[in-house]
Recover the amino acids of this structure.
């Protein structure tokens, strides 16, 4: 049990950042992870509960140059239902479609999903392959960090306690970009991934360019697959290359056994699902 | 004059009487009941699985403001609960599984009670644990209960014929070991109780979710050392039972002791996590089955050896061999059968009763062998079953008397509707353990009691019927409503007799001070037993009414009938007088009388003898289910596409209700087959919540085609038989057969989770 001493729901970003300055606050947005974790005794709430839902700067989205700026409070359902977002970033819309249930999607935010930093977080694998950046604000300033490297462990990120994640920037995919997202749970809905997998590349006459491969739930954080990416970069997809890529991916992940799957099965799934994705791209 | 047309309610689609309230969220469950002065009860459970309790320090908890009582074993008489009386409500000396109760608190709020539990300090000395039921039988294994040094909680043996002779005449013999897992009921309504002593008389009222109120009275009386006549049980609407509320469990007397200690009403309701940790499970089983057949398709023998993981204590789970043996001995005609079972103690959670009561496990093994033997002798899987199927008129070597039997019709109909034979051979021709998505079809049949089960001294049920001056009928029945729709069916049967509309009926079924005795909701018995009881009471009322009407109308009673709320002339439906008017004239007459009747129905079944032989049920239910599936060989995911279910139900009473029962049972069987699993690691449950204990969700529910075979059972109410458990029984067996049809791999362990299937396919492809 935690005694919350103060509950704050500021209407301006400055007030929110001031409240965070002492590092003594727990941030509440959709609450879909936080409430479950605090009820389950897995998260200790700090003395100040800071509701950020009234901060206008964190809502909405816009196109800024070559990137889409997604406010941290954008809900998972907005990712799939907003026509502009879904058209610009179909991979994220697809991940949102596989995310929990409608009730949860109406409340859960993309900022919360990123800060919760679950190895199985549904939007994280797409954000990794899309080269997203996160924007962090604190009373002393703002910084932008690439999402690749932002996750440091299960539930841990580079965000400091006095920082607030305000937005996510995603570069607009170039022409002739193909992308795929596969979430593997044991049932079609309402499931936590046993494995997820994202792929993105540009199809050029010379072969694949700017290849991105990322995996969820196969290590302490959602992770890129540098070995698999390097193998595929600049190449044309042949059956031999696809087989080798699947083998490489299987070898470079670091899964564990848990109640959802054994490490062995996760490796097999990554192998088989990446092979399926690449076969599908090759037929494209 | 008014003519009233004949109209029958039987077979109609009637909305369950409790559905409007439930769907509107207005039903008041035990959670919604709060008595003045009520305290919250909460239980401290152990975090060990096998240990000696060295000390329990409750001083800090007792000192916490708002705490009214803290109880440990030394405050209570040490009376054991359950089938072997081996489970004391609070454990003082030793713990034997994760769910063990150490101390209990009554406090003014949930927060205070939870805080008090955290203040209780327990010291343990761990003992060598025992998790593997096979290890339990080995010499030197840890002994879980001193009174059972061999760890055998219960054993059953049955035989007929001579299996050695049977095997000698077999052309094909198959043998497999099947491993069945542990699942739990997942009732939407969790377990709960409120105990309330009347201050002056000392009488005890319990608000309880039990599905056996009258047996409960006795059991409470025994544990508490009270006169059962002073215990009243009121059942608020129950959010599902499925067998989980069939026994008395430690939390129930604990709550009573807390009420006694505090002289206040105490309410104790489980959290969802507690419901997973501390309510009973389906019985895990290891089934070794050896079966034989002749080339012409005649079954020759079956040898069955079953080991049940009983867990730390003995609830009803240990007795499922009663039901399993019926399936082994009598689902198909088998001339020689030898059957041994043992339920052994371990430090795992203990098993209780669960819809199907062992029959899912037995059917899984048998039906796998039916496919395997058919394939071995080169006979069509349907023809092989048809050849050995029971028929009406058969009395089996176990003594079951099949007065009606629709098994061959079930087989034929389900196979025809699903195009079983053609699909099975087409899919078999393409089967393989690798290479994309494979399709398969599988079949299983079942036999289950459908006319009660004579386990207790009486298998009966009583009904009182009262008619008021306005023609309103009150049915007081011993039979509990646990969501299965019994009150609607009972009202329907009474309306049919008394010619009144459903709106003229109230069913009182939840108060042991009002309702007549009933043995409880189990064994798919309520429609059959309580239905016959209600029909009997209604017929007595009808006879009384018609006799009175004869006196007033100058027509003989035989020429009168009841219809549409009127006494009518039977030959043309002409109203003689409104029923209400007749009832008033009886009431306000010089020989004043109220119409009330009572009927107790005891089915014409018998207790089995010591060899477990005898006609234990007054009727038997039959079914065949066919499933079509896809197996993704890259992931192991099994997708259930369609289910064809053909059920011999005697007769359809409420078509909407029975369809709901079948659909719900199919989904429960699907969960058992594919997704549900209590994941235990060294006696600890790792998935005590719906995140990782996977119930079937809406998108997984397959298309269903449900057919009813009406064999019009001579003993059943309007010809009906029990059907409550039947639809859950075949699914795992049918899906296992379909996976083999799709992939060529025979999986003998449940559940068929993607990982288990994938691993099986890999091994199958390698071998």
């Amino acid at each position: 049990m935690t005694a919350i001493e103060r509950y704050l729901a500021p209407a301006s970003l400055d007030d929110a950042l001031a409240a965070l300055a002492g590092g003594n606050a727990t941030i509440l947005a959709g609450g879909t992870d936080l409430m479950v974790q605090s009820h389950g005794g897995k998260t200790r709430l700090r003395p100040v509960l800071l509701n950020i839902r009234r901060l206008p700067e964190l809502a909405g989205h816009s196109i800024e140059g070559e990137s889409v700026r997604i406010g941290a409070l954008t809900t998972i359902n907005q990712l799939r239902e907003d026509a502009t977002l879904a058209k610009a970033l179909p991979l994220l819309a697809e991940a949102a479609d596989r995310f929990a249930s409608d009730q949860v999607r109406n409340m859960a935010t993309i900022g919360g999903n990123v800060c919760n930093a679950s190895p199985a977080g549904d939007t994280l694998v797409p954000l990794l392959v899309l080269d997203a950046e996160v924007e962090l604000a604190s009373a002393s300033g703002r910084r932008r960090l690439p999402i690749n490297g932002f996750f440091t462990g299960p539930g841990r990120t580079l965000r400091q306690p006095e920082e607030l994640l305000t937005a996510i920037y995603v570069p607009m995919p170039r022409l002739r970009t193909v992308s795929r997202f596969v979430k593997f749970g044991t049932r079609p809905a309402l499931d936590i991934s046993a494995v997820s997998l994202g792929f993105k590349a540009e199809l050029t006459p010379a072969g694949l360019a700017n290849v991105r491969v990322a995996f969820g739930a196969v290590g302490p954080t959602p992770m890129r697959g540098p070995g698999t990416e390097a193998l595929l970069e600049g190449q044309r997809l042949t059956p031999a290359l696809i087989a080798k890529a699947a083998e490489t991916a299987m070898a470079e992940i670091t899964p564990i056994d848990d109640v959802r799957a054994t490490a062995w099965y996760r490796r097999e799934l990554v192998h088989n699902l990446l092979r399926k994705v690449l076969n599908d791209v090759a037929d494209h | 004059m008014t003519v009233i047309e004949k109209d029958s309610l039987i077979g109609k689609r009637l909305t369950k009487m409790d559905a409007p309230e439930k769907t509107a969220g207005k039903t008041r469950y035990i959670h919604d009941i709060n008595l003045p002065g009520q305290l919250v009860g909460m239980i401290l459970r152990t975090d060990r699985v096998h240990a000696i309790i060295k000390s329990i320090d409750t001083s800090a908890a007792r000192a916490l403001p708002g705490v009214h009582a803290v109880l440990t074993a030394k405050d209570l008489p040490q009376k054991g609960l359950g089938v072997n009386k081996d489970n004391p409500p609070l454990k003082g000396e030793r713990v034997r599984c994760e769910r063990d109760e150490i101390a209990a608190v009554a406090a003014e709020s949930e927060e205070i009670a939870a805080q008090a539990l955290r203040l209780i300090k327990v010291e343990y000395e761990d003992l060598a644990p025992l998790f593997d039921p096979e290890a339990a039988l080995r010499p030197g294994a840890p002994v879980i209960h001193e009174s059972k040094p061999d760890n055998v909680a219960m054993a059953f043996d049955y035989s007929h014929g001579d299996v050695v002779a049977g095997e000698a005449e077999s052309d094909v013999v198959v043998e497999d070991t099947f491993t069945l897992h542990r699942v739990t009921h997942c009732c939407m309504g969790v377990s709960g109780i409120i105990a309330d002593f009347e201050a002056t008389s000392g009488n005890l009222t319990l608000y309880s979710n039990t599905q056996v109120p009258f047996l409960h009275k006795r059991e409470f009386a025994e544990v508490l050392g009270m006169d059962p006549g002073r215990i009243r049980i009121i059942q608020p609407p129950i959010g599902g039972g499925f067998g989980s509320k069939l026994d008395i469990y430690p939390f129930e007397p604990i709550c009573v002791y807390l009420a006694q200690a505090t002289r206040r009403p105490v309410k104790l309701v489980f959290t969802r996590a507690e419901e997973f940790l501390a309510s009973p499970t389906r019985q895990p089983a290891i089934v070794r089955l050896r079966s034989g057949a002749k080339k012409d398709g005649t079954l020759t023998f079956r040898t069955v050896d079953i080991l049940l993981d009983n867990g730390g204590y003995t609830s009803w789970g240990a007795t499922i061999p009663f039901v399993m043996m019926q399936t082994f001995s009598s689902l198909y005609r088998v001339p020689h059968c030898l059957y041994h079972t043992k339920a052994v103690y371990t430090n795992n959670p203990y098993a209780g009763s669960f819809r199907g009561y062992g029959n899912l496990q037995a059917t899984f093994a048998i039906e796998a062998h039916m496919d395997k033997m058919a394939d071995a002798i080169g006979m069509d899987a349907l023809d092989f079953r048809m050849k050995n199927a029971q028929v009406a008129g058969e009395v089996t070597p176990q003594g079951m008397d099949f007065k009606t039997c629709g098994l061959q019709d079930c087989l034929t109909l389900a196979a025809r509707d699903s195009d079983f034979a053609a699909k099975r051979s087409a899919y078999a021709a393409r089967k393989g353990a690798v290479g994309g998505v494979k399709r398969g079809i599988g079949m299983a049949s079942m036999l289950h009691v459908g006319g009660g089960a004579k386990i207790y001294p009486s298998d009966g049920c009583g009904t009182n019927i009262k008619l008021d001056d306005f023609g309103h009928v009150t049915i007081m029945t011993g039979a509990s409503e646990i969501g299965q729709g019994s009150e609607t069916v009972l009202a329907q049967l009474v309306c049919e007799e008394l010619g009144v509309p459903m709106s003229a009926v109230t069913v009182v079924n939840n108060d042991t001070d009002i309702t007549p005795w009933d043995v409880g909701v189990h064994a798919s018995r309520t429609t059959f037993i309580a239905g016959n009881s209600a029909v009997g009471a209604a017929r007595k009322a009808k006879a009384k009414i018609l006799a009175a009407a004869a006196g007033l109308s100058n027509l003989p009673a035989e020429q009168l009938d009841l219809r549409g709320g009127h006494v009518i002339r039977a030959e043309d439906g002409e109203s003689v007088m409104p029923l209400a008017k007749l009832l008033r004239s009886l009431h306000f007459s010089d020989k004043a009388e109220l119409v009330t009747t009572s009927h107790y129905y005891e089915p014409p079944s018998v207790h089995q003898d010591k060899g477990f032989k005898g006609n234990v049920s007054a009727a038997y239910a039959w079914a065949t289910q066919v499933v079509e599936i896809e197996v993704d060989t890259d992931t192991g995911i099994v997708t259930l596409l369609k289910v064809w279910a053909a059920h011999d139900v005697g007769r359809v009473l409420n078509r909407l209700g029975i369809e709901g029962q079948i659909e719900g049972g199919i989904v429960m069987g699907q969960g058992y087959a594919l997704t549900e699993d209590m994941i235990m690691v060294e006696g600890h449950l790792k998935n005590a919540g719906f995140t990782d204990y996977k119930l079937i969700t809406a998108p997984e529910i397959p298309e269903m085609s449900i057919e009813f075979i009406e064999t019009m059972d001579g003993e059943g109410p309007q010809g009906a038989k029990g059907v409550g458990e039947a639809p859950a029984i075949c699914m795992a067996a049918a899906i296992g057969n379909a996976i083999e049809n799709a992939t060529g791999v025979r999986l003998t362990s449940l559940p068929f989770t993607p990982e288990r299937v994938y691993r099986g396919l890999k091994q199958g492809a390698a071998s």
